[in-house]
Amino acid sequence: MTEPSDDGVDSAERVEHRWAALSVAIMVLLVAMATFAAVYHAAMPQARVETVDPRTLHLGGEFIESNLGSTLEPDGSVTLRGIGQQYSFTPSCMVLPTNTLITLRATSADVVHGFLIDGTNINLMLVPGYVSSLNARFDTPGERLMPCHGRAEQGIQGRCRGGLSHSGR
Prior knowledge:
2 domains, nine-stranded mixed sheet, elongated, alpha+beta, Immunoglobulin-like
């Protein structure tokens, strides 16, 4: 009687080992890419970081009460300045034109607030001490809600809100 050939079993084991090695190599590559991206972005600061003292927002500078809201700039664009604070945004209702470049500039006076405009991709985190800035354009007239999100205390989401209205010029 002859011994059965182990060539098929050896061949299957070699194929399994190759696939296992390939799987491990792919996982190592993905971990290396994620590590590189994390280190690279942590080492490279944002292109422009603007700071502001949250304790003196109301005393002077860009975020004093008379500067809040929308302002028409000489180039025809609109700058919207706002502050997130306990249970509200100031100003609570903002009116903006459509088909105009709008620069949103906002900060927080107390804790981290989320500045979200429903129905758009506008979503900023307002961090005390830093100015958040974003360019946007509204193509159609309408009214949007600005619910607060991002604060960890229970119940804040339903109490902090604002409104945005954008209409033709």
